[in-house]
Structure formats: structure tokens, C-alpha cells
Amino acid sequence: PSWTGGGTPVFIRLEPSPDKNSNGVILAVQDTAGTSSNLHAAYWNGSSWSQQASFAVGISTSGTGNIFSQVFDVAWTSGGVKAIVAWGVLPGTLAGQQTPFYRIWYSTNTAWAVGTSTAPDLDGGATSEIPRWIRLASDPNSQNIAMGVADGDLDLTAMIWDGNTQVWGNQLTNAETAISQVANGYRPFDLAYERGGGQLLLAYTDGNAYLRCRTWTSGGGWLTEAACLTDTVGTTPIRNIEIISNPNDPVSDEMLIAVTNSGRQIRTYRWNGGSFDAAYTPTLFSQWTWETYPNAGMPFAMAYTRDFTQPTAAITAPVNNQHNAA
Questions:
Q1: Residues forming beta bridges with residue 147, ordered by sequence position
Q2: Distance in angstroms (rounded) separating the CA atoms of residues 255 and 239
Q3: Helix (H, G, I), strand (E, B), or coil: what is residue 305?
Q4: Measured between alpha carbons, how far is 249 from 245 in angstroms, rounded to an integer?
Q5: Other beta carbons less than 10 A from residue 244's beta carbon
Q6: Is 227 a residue whose pLDDT tops 90?
Q7: Which of 14, 109, 242, 298 is deepest in the core (most CB within 10 A)?
């Protein structure tokens, strides 16, 4: 698809519907346009593109003329009933630039909502807190979508969107106030839901070499900040954080997290539902070339292999004239 006035794409997100009976995919594209960036989206129905839209002109970036931050994201609710695209805007572009904007997709109508909506202010209306990185995470067991936002004041805010009521809540303001690497185009935070427990994990840097985390549940809300690890991730400031959930087990609490630092090192950890398991922590991998350059983004990727083993079943003999299957 193409959009009027579109520039060169710099970030592209394709997010397939979690509905197994749907071929739907949402495409979101952040492009360059001078010293700012625009956001466009479209819907793929399995054979063609439709519902092409431009949501923002002049969305916020990592700095003047530097289009290195992904200042948008897209996520579906469980079952693919709804989806949202969220983004931030440049100072002076729209009123309330410290407030993330979003648009809802309705699968029942195969259409975007009419008009753009606003999420809560990042910090009580402080106009200097312009979104620089936005990250969305879907709860596979509810209609909730979590959002994490790193802003121009180097603060981190998180909140939860209830897809049933279509209302934001459970806002965690200033989870961290010194995530300095976001100013250089890196993403020193991430968030993801466990597939089995419904618990949300938010992990972020303290601005240096320590990894911090908080968890959220619908029954307990946000827990206080904890040091995820007893040791540092190397000796230099953390730059990037990535969390992925185990896709193979619908009742698993396992997640993997990868962390890079400015010393050109990467380390992975395993989350077991309550803590990071030291037994699965490898030594630091180090010295990849691209990380020596400024504004290098996230020069790594991580993924689980998929388990396509067919389930097995056995028929037992009748007991008391009742047929039992295991």
C-alpha cells in the first residue's frame, strides 16, 4: 500500500490477528519527513490491502533529525476482536503532545474507529515529556493491552488498556526517571505478559548497569520495584531490553529476556514466573561491530522455536460401564 505524502519507511510493524480463523494482519509504518516522522497503517485480509490511513503527521523522534526511535506500536486483544495502534507526536504538532494517541481497530466492522483517542498524560500534564519509545503487549488470557512509554525527560510510564471497557487504567508514572540511553535511540525497557499466569513483567534499566523490574496482575496491581538480578549486566550502561514469552505452552510462565549494554555485550536470562533463573544465564556474548556506532538501534533478535508435536491420547477400558478418555 501507499499513502499520500509518505516518506521513506524507517520502522515497519506487521501484527497478525490471534484469531486462528482470520487472515487479518495490521501493517503500521513510521516514515521520514524532513526532521519529523509520519505514521500510516493498513489492513491485510489475506488477499488485498484495505483501510489505509495516516494517523499522525510529525510524530516524535529520538531528537531533531534523528529517526531512530519507534514511537508507535500495534497490538491485538486476545481472540482478535480489537486492536490498537498507539503513537506520540512532536511538540507543538497537536495539543497535549505529552499524551500518547491511539486508534482502535474493530474486527467486527473491519474498520478503524472514527477519530483518534488519547491515553492518560504521562506525568500529570508535564509538557516536556514527549514520547520517544512506545511498546505494547497483549495479554493472551484477557482483553488487556499494556503500554510502556519512554519519554524525552528519560522517564518510563506504563498503563493498561481494558479492551472490554476501552478505558486506560493502572497507570504507573515514573517507574524509572533515568533511562538515559533512550536519548540515543535505544530502548532500555520492555514489557510482556506470561502466557499462563496473566502476570505482566516490566523490565528496565536504572540508567546504569542494573536491570530493574516490576510485575502487574489484575488482582494485585503493580508491585514495588525490585532488583531483577543481584549482579550487573556487565559494567557499562544498559542500552536495549527485549522480552519474549514462551509460545509453545499456554499455561507456561516462562519468558526470555535479552539485554545489551554500551560495552557491546549481550546476555540472556530466563524468567520462571517469579524471578530470573540463574541456572539458565550464559556468560556475556560480546564485541559485535554495529554496536560501536551511535544510534545503532537494536542490532539483535531473539525467538523460540515452535513445537508442532501433535498431542497424544489413549482410550482406556470401560469402568463401571463408563467410557473414560485420557
A1: 136, 159
A2: 20
A3: coil
A4: 9
A5: 16
A6: no
A7: 242
**Three-class SS state of 240:** strand
Given a cut of 90, is residue 244 above it in pLDDT? Answer: yes
Q: Partners of 27 in the beta sheet?
A: 14, 42
Nearest to 146 by CA among 154, 157, 132, 155: 157
For residue 42, give Cα distances in angstroms to 38, 77, 226.
14, 18, 40
* CA distances to 35, 213, 218, 240, 304 from 243, in Å: 31, 12, 20, 10, 11
- Hey, is 270 helix, strand or coil? strand
Choose between 59 and 63: higher pLDDT: 59
The angle subtended at Cα 127 by Cα 123 and Cα 131, nearest 5°, is 70
Pairwise CA distance, residues 181 & 187, whole Å: 7
Considering only CA atoms, which of 184, 119, 117 is closest in space to residue 148?
Answer: 119
What distance in Å separates the CA atoms of residue 182 and residue 186, rounded to the nearest whole number? 5
For residues 162 and 168, give the distance between their C-alpha atoms in angstroms, rounded to a whole number: 6
- DSSP label at 231? S
In 3D, which of 134, 130, 116, 121 has the Cα closest to residue 71?
134
- 94-118 residue pLDDT tens: 555 678 999 999 999 999 999 889 8
pLDDT at 137 over 90: yes
Question: Do the Cβ atoms of 90 and 34 come closer than 8 Å?
Answer: no
- pLDDT given for residue 274 in this prediction: 86
Whether residue 142 contacts residue 160, with contact meaning beta carbons closer than 8 Å, is answered with no
pLDDT tens for 253-265 read 999 999 888 888 8
The answer to whether 50 and 41 have CB atoms below 8 angstroms apart is: no
Instruction: Find the farthest-apart pair of alpha carbons in the chain and give their distance in angstroms, rounded.
Output: 78
